[in-house]
Amino acid sequence: MSYSLKEWEVNTDGRISGHEAFKSSGNPCQHCKLRVSGAMETSGRIATTADTLEFTVENVEKSRFSPRIVYCERTGLGDAPIGQPERRLTSHYEADIERWSTHGPRKSQPCAITCCAALHQLYYDPNIENKNLAQKWLMQAQVSPQAWQFCWALLSPDKVPEIQYFGASALHTKISRYWGDIPTDQYESLKSQLFSQIACFSSGSKMVLTRLCVALASLALNTMPEAWPGAVAEMVRVFQEEGGGVDGRARCLALLELLTVLPEEFHTSRLPQYRKGQVRGALGREWGSVCPLLQQLLCRADSPGAVKARVLRCLSSWVMLDVPLNESESLVHDCFSALPDPELFDTAVEAIVNAISQPDSQRYVNTLLKLVPLVLALQEQLREAVQSGDMETCHGICRIVVTLGENHSRTLLEQVDHWQSFLALVNMIMFCTGIPGHYPVNETTSSLTLTFWYTLQDEIMSFESERQAVYLQVYRPVYFQLVDVLLHKAQFPSDQEYASWSSDEKEQFRIYRVDISDTLMYVYEMLGAELLSNLYEKLGRLLTNTEQPTSWQHTEALLYGFQSIAETIDVNYSDVIPGLIGLIPRININNVQLADTVMFTIGALAEWLADHPVMLSSVLPLVLQALGNPDLSVSSVSTLKKICRECKYDLPPYATNIVAVSQEVLIKQIHKTSQCMWLMQALGFLLSALPVEEILRNLHSLITPYIQQLEKLADETPNPSNKLAIIHILGLLSNLFTTLDISKQDDESGEGSAPPVKTTPPPPGPNPVVVVLQQVFALIQTVLSKWLNDSQVVEAVCAIFEKSVKTLLHDFAPMVSQLSEMLGQMYSTIPQASALDLTRQMVHIFASQTDHFPPIKALFELVTSVTLSIFQQGPRDHPDIVDSFMQLQAQALKRKPDLFLSESLDVKAVFHCGILSLKFPEAPTVKSTCLFFTELLPHCSDVPPVARVVQEDGKVLLQAVLEGIGGGVSRSLMDQFAEVLFSMNKHCFALLSLWLKEALQPPGFPSVRLTAEQKDTFSQQILRERVNKRRVKDIVKEFTLVCRGLHGTEYAAEY
């Protein structure tokens, strides 16, 4: 519906001379009666006939004359006549509220009455369902054509602020999103009415005023510069004029609110890109009208604090439009003058930060240089804030300093004549970094500065070598000082203080230390090996000074510095690491945090230890000792795992001791489940380097207790308690076999390519893992026989074999036959997705080997047959099985397409199962199905059963794909559907051209929004692209937007 109304002009003598501006297309309020009372004080006022009251723009504006002229006795729309009291929402609309509660929104067309009733329900109804119903209806009403009618009525002065706010919001929504509904000849009328409403509310509800200002701002953005040139200048002029019974301070605040929201509305507006450029330019030209006003108000001694605060907010908003820094220079200087005022501090900080952080501001070097002394002058205020514990002031000043340094470090570095002032700025930021107190309890400022140090280092290192050397001479000492400051800030508080912290504060401190660690790692790039030497000297002095006692916090912080660097930087060539390893045993570890850091530091040096195995004897006893402490569970187990992984070929002399200690802590169950699994992985790495006989002997002692426990559990009646124990034991075995590999191999390749291969042949004889698996195979079958109904137990059993297959590869061959048989029995009894995943892994490794093809083929045919029966019964309840089944079929086509030549395999049924799976709501299942079809279609030429089914039923597949593209599936899956289309086009071109024509012929398919021309264009585009897959994906994405009615929308652009 267009923005329309029937207007009648009321002359000064009270006569109504009518003219129809344009026709109304809404439903009139049947209760309204036009009442004109008294003589008019102002000519040209507009009233309205009774049948169109709700459509008017002007008739509900707050009249600047008296008495009131328009009133509806039934609804109360307009102004009450003289002497009649205003009515409240709760009593006035009782009948309408009752009608709303009885009939709901379905029988209620949006108008002022129903909106008031819905708002009453939203705010006061205790029933949450009724609230949700009202909210949904109000959101629809706000964008309905009738919103043009009721929004003005809801702004009537006799309404409560909640109703007025909804009216203002609806007005903004219509202007911002449905601007095209408004005839051009109504722009002036709408603008005038908005000015009038803002003046009316300038002394009223703040939230309504703001919403009305946003509405006028949206109107201005849609009309400037053509229809409303000089919009901002006119706004200033209108509000500076006396009149309307509104005091000057209220008008001033209303104007500032309007000017503030104007740039904000621009940033969130839905203007087309070309219009955004035009409007941005127009707003930039309007700065000349805004700047003098702001400066005048900010500098006047008699300006109230509220006005100055609004001025600062307005400035903060306007500088986000990339106002040239030199044009706002004087105002920014005034902002610095406002910083001592506590009432203005926050808004002044925001304005300064926004002004100097604009990308274009670096062009104005002279202005930036003038700002540096102003920032440095804040040091006294900063120190006073630190001494008084004023965290907010510290935070604000730090934001200003860091913003200037972070955004303009290169510009200021290049001003060599002012190097001392920039160095002073850097030192001020250093003060902020080292601000006294513990983060986040005593201060929250220091974390703001960390990014600056990255930026400054990058800028210094980006200069050519000669200039870089000069800057390094000045700033390397600064960065060494920074390291000291950061390590001091990383120190833990006293034990008593730390114990008083909340868990949230401890977590924030942990994250803060991680940020410091990242900064230290980055600083190492500048300071190099000298940094490690510096840390080593400090630690050495600390540990060897017997005269002066040292706190554990200091020792821990220095070790943390080493750990931070060693975790990510190659320190193999550092000459201080041997000394560090020698110092570690001298540390008096009497604290959990210190012990944790010692462990993590040793773990970070695991690669160095692999190159210097002689040092293992110095640190390994510490790690093994820590294994017995549950408080050090994570650090000690992860460190042992790193050492066993990196140094396994140097650990045989220590193997017996490591296994014994590990076995002891496992039996005592002092670690959580995840750490137990890590420990088993560590033992797998350790045992891999031993001779086969020793591996078997250690395996026997290590897992025998668990096998015995599993035998006992297998005899018990299933219950939740022994289920957890069984899963735990199976998990331990699974993690042990994940890393126990007696021969080296290349990194495992993806499943899409050939299986990974061993780079060295395994030792003669059976693989120890296979030996153990063969020994426990019968026991695992016994466990399965009782727990086959439990997916978690079955998944744990399959994980043992799946991880063993991935690790052993072809060394697993002796078990292929019996595992295939067991999998077939498992799946035939109770189908589980984990069994299909293990089958897929078997197909991947062994399907191409002649010796193992028969059992793999039999297993593949069996699980396929069982799964097809699931599809016959209804697969919807088993999306995980369908997902794994499609992945298995895709893997079989990729690795061994001969499996589809079998007469026992119903290829046609598998094909149709895939079509059904395309319509599943689960995205992973649909992705796996698309993968299946992209693997199947290329075999039309070499696998006759595939060729037959594609020729017979390929059109059905195409229809399913088009249905998905048309809106049947999520847009996030369009790439996968495009790949199916691309594969069809590449391998079945002749058939696809015919199928597309037939499939797209029915009207409304795949979407009622499509025209015949759009379908034809899509067909031609798809058939044209047989090489460029990326182009096909783009075509499909464009087509699906058209199908869904999203093409050209902002929602689609943001997706």
UniProtKB/TrEMBL annotation:
It comes from the Eukaryota. Residues 134-200 form the Importin N-terminal domain. It is found in: Cytoplasm; Nucleus. Gene3D superfamilies: Leucine-rich Repeat Variant. It holds the Pfam family Xpo1. PANTHER family: IMPORTIN-13, TRANSPORTIN 3 AND IMPORTIN 13. Its main location: cytoplasm. The gene is IPO13. It comes from Merluccius polli (Benguela hake). This is Importin-13. Residues 745-765 are annotated as: Disordered. Interacts with UBC9, RAN, RBM8A, eIF-1A and PAX6. Keywords: Cytoplasm, Nucleus, Protein transport, Repeat, Transport. GO terms for biological process: protein import into nucleus. Belongs to the importin beta family. InterPro entries: ARM-like, ARM-type_fold, Exportin-1/Importin-b-like, Importin-beta_N, Importin_beta-like_NTR, Importin_rep_1, Importin_rep_2, Importin_rep_3. Signal peptide: none annotated.
